[in-house]
């Protein structure tokens, strides 16, 4: 932060006091005697170093807000520019040139038609469209934080759109499953987990050297990191989603946050919910039902979307379940119920 500010950053408070700092750990508060009174609210002035000029660019500001504050409760606007088509009076020289060109290329009959309509054309001033740059306030955080809502009030389409926005996967396929839950008590957090429809091609490449997780960590709706691998074991790294905690501290470094005692509790609950979510894919798949009576009931309902879903999951992520059996002794029994094997029959002559 110190490398960005050249002189001072200051807050001009409504009751006319100024807070100033050079981002060096010290600050000063003084009475505001040189600015006009705001009446209410707070004005923030930042003085940036020359090498930090990119933080004044419109695209850079949009990128930062979208990444770190996309789900903040209060709206964030940017005074942004855009090009629009505007009609302006055409120049007389251009108009006459166009008339001459049209006259030379027209036939005699066309000229007669033009003469007949000339009276109407004279009444309408000739215009042309030009590009003009305008400025207006643009809302940057218009995506709703669906994890703050009651799961019963969120539709399947809303979950699908949220998954596409989160994963930047705008294909036609829906996620195989999702889990929307919250935890209360000593550790409070809300989370949404998704099982993607397909495994990325590099899922198992550099499996033990890749620390990146697809689970984004938020603290009070503020984005912290998407490389926080302490929330999921490696064999579940194919899951996508986010965790938003009200318990974790916001103004600490990533290294200090990694050692926070609440992370172990959060991780334990997320793993359990993730395995329950995967088990639910199998439970709702008619092809997975071996109970004839239950299967007849399922077939009486239009359940085509869920048919064969677990086979699809196993073909894409079965290797992850097998790795979990090896790596996660605590949840080995839960993972064992997710294993599937090919059935072979032998015939004797």
TrEMBL record:
Pfam families in UniProt: HSP90 (PF00183)
**Protein keywords:** ATP-binding, Chaperone, Nucleotide-binding
> Compositional bias (Acidic residues) spans?
88-102, 111-120
One molecular function GO term is: ATP binding
User: Region (Disordered) spans which residues?
Assistant: 88-129
Q: Which PANTHER family match?
A: HEAT SHOCK PROTEIN 90 FAMILY MEMBER (PTHR11528)
* Family that this chain belongs to: Belongs to the heat shock protein 90 family.
The protein depicted here goes by the name Heat shock protein 90
The record lists the organism as Ilex paraguariensis (yerba mate)
């Amino acid at each position: 932060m110190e490398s960005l500010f050249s002189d001072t950053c200051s807050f001009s408070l409504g009751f006319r006091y100024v807070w100033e700092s050079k981002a060096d750990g010290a600050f000063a508060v003084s009475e505001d005697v040189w600015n006009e009174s705001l009446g209410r609210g707070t004005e923030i002035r930042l003085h940036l170093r020359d090498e930090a000029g990119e933080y004044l660019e419109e695209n850079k500001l949009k990128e930062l807000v979208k990444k770190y504050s996309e789900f903040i409760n209060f709206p964030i606007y940017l005074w942004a520019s855009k090009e629009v088509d505007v009609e302006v009076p055409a120049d007389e020289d251009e108009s006459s040139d166009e008339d001459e060109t049209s006259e030379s290329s027209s036939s005699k009959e066309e000229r007669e038609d033009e003469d007949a309509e000339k009276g109407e054309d004279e009444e309408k001033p000739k215009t042309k469209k030009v590009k003009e740059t305008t400025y207006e306030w643009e809302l940057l955080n218009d995506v709703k934080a669906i994890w703050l809502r009651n799961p019963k009030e969120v539709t399947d389409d809303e979950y699908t759109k949220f998954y596409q926005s989160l994963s930047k996967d705008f294909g036609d396929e829906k996620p195989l499953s999702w889990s929307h839950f919250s935890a209360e008590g000593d550790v409070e957090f809300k989370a949404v987990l998704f099982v993607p429809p397909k495994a990325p091609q590099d899922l198992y490449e550099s499996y033990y050297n890749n620390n990146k997780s697809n689970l984004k960590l938020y603290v009070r709706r503020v984005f912290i990191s998407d490389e926080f691998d302490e929330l999921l074991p490696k064999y579940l790294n194919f899951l996508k989603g986010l965790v938003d905690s009200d318990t974790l501290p916001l103004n600490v470094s990533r290294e200090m946050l990694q050692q926070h005692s609440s992370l172990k509790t959060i991780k334990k609950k997320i793993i359990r919910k993730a395995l329950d979510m995967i088990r639910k894919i199998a439970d709702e798949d008619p092809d997975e039902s071996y109970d004839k009576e239950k299967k007849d009931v399922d077939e009486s309902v239009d359940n085509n979307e869920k048919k064969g879903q677990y086979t699809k999951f196993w073909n894409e992520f079965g290797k992850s379940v097998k790795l979990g059996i090896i790596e996660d002794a605590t949840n080995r029994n839960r993972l064992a119920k997710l294993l599937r094997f090919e059935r072979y029959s032998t015939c004797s002559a």
